[in-house]
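We store chain and fold; example below:
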Amino acid sequence: MGFDGGPALAIALGIGLFWLASMLIERGLALEAELAGRRLARAPKLPGKLLGAAAAAAAAAIIGLFATPGGPLLAAVHAGLTFLGCRLAYGADPRPDRDAVARAADRAGMRPTEVLAVLDEANGKIRAIEQAAASLRSRELQERIGRIAARARAVVSELEKDPEDISRARRFLVTYLDGTRDVIAKYAEQQHEVAGTALGENFRRVLDTIEKVFEEQIEVLKRDDRLDLEVQLEVLETQMRREGVH
Protein backbone atom coordinates (compact mmCIF):
# COMPACT_ATOMS: atom_id res chain seq x y z
CA MET A 1 0.00 0.00 0.00
CA GLY A 2 1.43 3.42 -0.79
CA PHE A 3 0.82 6.93 -2.04
CA ASP A 4 2.47 9.27 -4.53
CA GLY A 5 6.09 9.75 -3.60
CA GLY A 6 6.39 6.32 -2.02
CA PRO A 7 8.07 5.23 1.19
CA ALA A 8 10.64 8.02 1.12
CA LEU A 9 7.93 10.66 1.38
CA ALA A 10 6.27 8.72 4.20
CA ILE A 11 9.56 8.58 6.09
CA ALA A 12 10.14 12.29 5.53
CA LEU A 13 6.64 13.09 6.77
CA GLY A 14 7.15 10.82 9.76
CA ILE A 15 10.43 12.53 10.64
CA GLY A 16 8.70 15.90 10.41
CA LEU A 17 5.96 14.71 12.76
CA PHE A 18 8.52 13.32 15.20
CA TRP A 19 10.26 16.72 15.17
CA LEU A 20 6.90 18.42 15.81
CA ALA A 21 6.23 15.94 18.61
CA SER A 22 9.55 16.76 20.26
CA MET A 23 8.82 20.49 20.08
CA LEU A 24 5.35 20.06 21.58
CA ILE A 25 6.56 17.80 24.37
CA GLU A 26 9.44 20.16 25.14
CA ARG A 27 6.96 23.02 25.38
CA GLY A 28 4.75 20.95 27.66
CA LEU A 29 7.69 20.10 29.92
CA ALA A 30 8.77 23.75 30.06
CA LEU A 31 5.26 24.79 31.06
CA GLU A 32 5.13 22.06 33.68
CA ALA A 33 8.43 23.31 35.15
CA GLU A 34 7.11 26.88 35.10
CA LEU A 35 3.95 25.91 36.96
CA ALA A 36 5.72 23.64 39.45
CA GLY A 37 5.07 24.86 42.97
CA ARG A 38 2.42 27.37 41.91
CA ARG A 39 -0.84 27.04 43.79
CA LEU A 40 -2.83 29.22 41.41
CA ALA A 41 -2.41 29.05 37.64
CA ARG A 42 -4.51 28.93 34.51
CA ALA A 43 -4.82 25.72 32.53
CA PRO A 44 -2.48 25.61 29.53
CA LYS A 45 -4.13 26.60 26.25
CA LEU A 46 -2.01 24.06 24.44
CA PRO A 47 -1.65 20.59 26.04
CA GLY A 48 1.85 20.18 24.64
CA LYS A 49 2.62 16.71 25.97
CA LEU A 50 -0.71 15.26 24.81
CA LEU A 51 -0.43 16.79 21.34
CA GLY A 52 3.22 15.72 21.16
CA ALA A 53 2.30 12.13 21.97
CA ALA A 54 -0.40 12.25 19.30
CA ALA A 55 2.04 13.64 16.72
CA ALA A 56 4.57 10.93 17.54
CA ALA A 57 1.87 8.27 17.23
CA ALA A 58 0.83 9.68 13.86
CA ALA A 59 4.45 9.59 12.70
CA ALA A 60 4.78 5.95 13.75
CA ALA A 61 1.51 5.09 11.99
CA ILE A 62 2.49 6.78 8.71
CA ILE A 63 5.92 5.17 8.61
CA GLY A 64 4.51 1.80 9.61
CA LEU A 65 1.68 1.97 7.08
CA PHE A 66 3.43 3.40 4.02
CA ALA A 67 7.14 2.67 4.47
CA THR A 68 7.22 -0.83 5.98
CA PRO A 69 5.63 -4.12 4.94
CA GLY A 70 3.86 -4.72 8.24
CA GLY A 71 0.41 -3.58 7.13
CA PRO A 72 -2.30 -1.57 8.88
CA LEU A 73 -2.54 -3.73 12.01
CA LEU A 74 1.16 -3.51 12.81
CA ALA A 75 1.16 0.21 12.02
CA ALA A 76 -1.71 0.67 14.50
CA VAL A 77 0.22 -1.28 17.13
CA HIS A 78 3.30 0.89 16.56
CA ALA A 79 1.20 4.04 16.85
CA GLY A 80 -0.47 2.88 20.04
CA LEU A 81 2.80 1.86 21.66
CA THR A 82 4.41 5.16 20.66
CA PHE A 83 1.54 7.15 22.18
CA LEU A 84 1.60 5.05 25.35
CA GLY A 85 5.38 5.33 25.60
CA CYS A 86 5.25 9.11 25.36
CA ARG A 87 2.57 9.32 28.04
CA LEU A 88 4.49 7.00 30.35
CA ALA A 89 7.77 8.81 29.76
CA TYR A 90 6.56 12.41 29.99
CA GLY A 91 3.30 12.17 31.91
CA ALA A 92 0.17 14.24 31.53
CA ASP A 93 -0.02 17.98 31.07
CA PRO A 94 -0.44 20.07 34.25
CA ARG A 95 -4.03 20.56 35.38
CA PRO A 96 -4.29 23.55 37.74
CA ASP A 97 -6.93 23.43 40.46
CA ARG A 98 -9.81 25.59 39.24
CA ASP A 99 -11.57 25.37 42.59
CA ALA A 100 -8.48 26.80 44.32
CA VAL A 101 -8.47 29.72 41.88
CA ALA A 102 -12.17 30.35 42.52
CA ARG A 103 -11.66 30.29 46.29
CA ALA A 104 -8.69 32.65 46.01
CA ALA A 105 -10.71 35.03 43.87
CA ASP A 106 -13.49 35.10 46.47
CA ARG A 107 -11.02 35.93 49.22
CA ALA A 108 -9.35 38.61 47.11
CA GLY A 109 -12.66 40.14 46.04
CA MET A 110 -11.66 39.75 42.40
CA ARG A 111 -12.66 37.68 39.42
CA PRO A 112 -10.63 34.49 38.84
CA THR A 113 -9.28 35.87 35.58
CA GLU A 114 -8.07 39.01 37.39
CA VAL A 115 -6.28 36.98 40.05
CA LEU A 116 -4.54 34.87 37.43
CA ALA A 117 -3.66 37.96 35.40
CA VAL A 118 -1.88 39.53 38.39
CA LEU A 119 0.07 36.37 39.12
CA ASP A 120 0.93 35.72 35.47
CA GLU A 121 2.07 39.32 35.06
CA ALA A 122 4.32 39.08 38.11
CA ASN A 123 5.84 35.75 37.07
CA GLY A 124 6.42 37.05 33.55
CA LYS A 125 8.28 40.08 34.90
CA ILE A 126 10.41 37.86 37.14
CA ARG A 127 11.41 35.79 34.10
CA ALA A 128 12.28 39.02 32.26
CA ILE A 129 14.52 40.03 35.17
CA GLU A 130 16.32 36.69 35.02
CA GLN A 131 16.78 37.02 31.27
CA ALA A 132 18.16 40.55 31.67
CA ALA A 133 20.57 39.33 34.36
CA ALA A 134 21.89 36.66 32.00
CA SER A 135 23.40 39.43 29.85
CA LEU A 136 25.59 40.69 32.69
CA ARG A 137 29.26 39.68 32.73
CA SER A 138 29.57 39.74 36.52
CA ARG A 139 28.80 36.43 38.20
CA GLU A 140 28.38 38.26 41.49
CA LEU A 141 25.66 40.50 40.03
CA GLN A 142 23.95 37.55 38.39
CA GLU A 143 23.83 35.76 41.75
CA ARG A 144 22.49 38.84 43.53
CA ILE A 145 19.78 39.32 40.93
CA GLY A 146 19.02 35.61 41.20
CA ARG A 147 18.36 36.14 44.91
CA ILE A 148 16.08 39.08 44.11
CA ALA A 149 14.14 36.93 41.64
CA ALA A 150 13.83 34.16 44.25
CA ARG A 151 12.51 36.64 46.82
CA ALA A 152 10.06 38.06 44.30
CA ARG A 153 8.79 34.54 43.63
CA ALA A 154 8.44 34.03 47.37
CA VAL A 155 6.25 37.14 47.56
CA VAL A 156 4.08 35.75 44.76
CA SER A 157 3.94 32.39 46.53
CA GLU A 158 2.79 34.03 49.77
CA LEU A 159 0.09 35.88 47.85
CA GLU A 160 -1.08 32.56 46.41
CA LYS A 161 -1.33 31.14 49.91
CA ASP A 162 -3.20 34.17 51.24
CA PRO A 163 -4.74 36.02 48.28
CA GLU A 164 -6.51 38.78 50.21
CA ASP A 165 -3.72 41.26 49.42
CA ILE A 166 -3.41 40.42 45.73
CA SER A 167 -5.26 43.47 44.44
CA ARG A 168 -3.23 45.85 46.63
CA ALA A 169 0.04 44.02 45.97
CA ARG A 170 -0.27 44.44 42.23
CA ARG A 171 0.99 48.02 42.32
CA PHE A 172 3.87 47.04 44.59
CA LEU A 173 4.90 44.17 42.31
CA VAL A 174 4.66 46.28 39.17
CA THR A 175 6.70 49.11 40.72
CA TYR A 176 9.53 46.89 41.94
CA LEU A 177 9.58 44.30 39.19
CA ASP A 178 9.45 46.91 36.43
CA GLY A 179 12.04 49.01 38.22
CA THR A 180 14.34 46.05 38.72
CA ARG A 181 14.05 44.94 35.11
CA ASP A 182 14.62 48.45 33.77
CA VAL A 183 17.64 49.23 35.92
CA ILE A 184 19.26 45.90 35.05
CA ALA A 185 18.66 46.46 31.34
CA LYS A 186 20.14 49.95 31.51
CA TYR A 187 23.18 48.76 33.46
CA ALA A 188 23.69 45.89 31.00
CA GLU A 189 23.85 48.36 28.11
CA GLN A 190 26.67 50.27 29.84
CA GLN A 191 28.36 47.54 31.86
CA HIS A 192 31.63 47.70 29.92
CA GLU A 193 31.96 51.42 30.72
CA VAL A 194 30.59 51.59 34.26
CA ALA A 195 31.97 48.40 35.85
CA GLY A 196 34.18 49.43 38.75
CA THR A 197 33.00 53.06 38.63
CA ALA A 198 30.82 55.05 41.04
CA LEU A 199 27.80 54.31 38.86
CA GLY A 200 28.50 50.60 39.20
CA GLU A 201 28.52 50.94 42.98
CA ASN A 202 25.27 52.91 42.81
CA PHE A 203 23.73 50.03 40.88
CA ARG A 204 24.76 47.64 43.66
CA ARG A 205 23.16 49.88 46.27
CA VAL A 206 19.92 49.88 44.30
CA LEU A 207 20.03 46.08 44.19
CA ASP A 208 20.56 46.07 47.97
CA THR A 209 17.42 48.17 48.40
CA ILE A 210 15.35 45.97 46.12
CA GLU A 211 16.47 42.77 47.82
CA LYS A 212 15.79 44.22 51.27
CA VAL A 213 12.30 45.41 50.35
CA PHE A 214 11.28 42.07 48.91
CA GLU A 215 12.59 40.32 52.02
CA GLU A 216 10.57 42.69 54.20
CA GLN A 217 7.40 42.03 52.23
CA ILE A 218 7.87 38.26 52.55
CA GLU A 219 8.01 38.62 56.33
CA VAL A 220 4.97 40.93 56.36
CA LEU A 221 2.97 38.39 54.38
CA LYS A 222 4.11 35.48 56.56
CA ARG A 223 2.97 37.38 59.66
CA ASP A 224 -0.37 37.92 57.92
CA ASP A 225 -0.07 41.67 58.43
CA ARG A 226 -1.63 44.15 56.08
CA LEU A 227 0.74 44.63 53.19
CA ASP A 228 2.41 48.00 53.74
CA LEU A 229 2.63 49.20 50.17
CA GLU A 230 2.53 52.96 50.38
CA VAL A 231 5.62 53.20 52.60
CA GLN A 232 7.84 51.48 50.04
CA LEU A 233 6.33 52.30 46.66
CA GLU A 234 8.38 55.44 46.06
CA VAL A 235 11.63 54.13 47.54
CA LEU A 236 12.96 52.48 44.42
CA GLU A 237 12.29 55.29 41.95
CA THR A 238 13.60 57.89 44.39
CA GLN A 239 16.83 55.98 45.01
CA MET A 240 17.31 55.19 41.32
CA ARG A 241 17.06 58.88 40.48
CA ARG A 242 19.40 59.80 43.32
CA GLU A 243 21.97 57.17 42.33
CA GLY A 244 21.75 58.16 38.66
CA VAL A 245 20.99 54.66 37.39
CA HIS A 246 17.56 55.27 35.89
Observations:
- The chain has a mean pLDDT of 82.
- The chain is about 75% helix and 0% strand.
- The radius of gyration is 25 Å.
- Residues 6-90 form one domain.
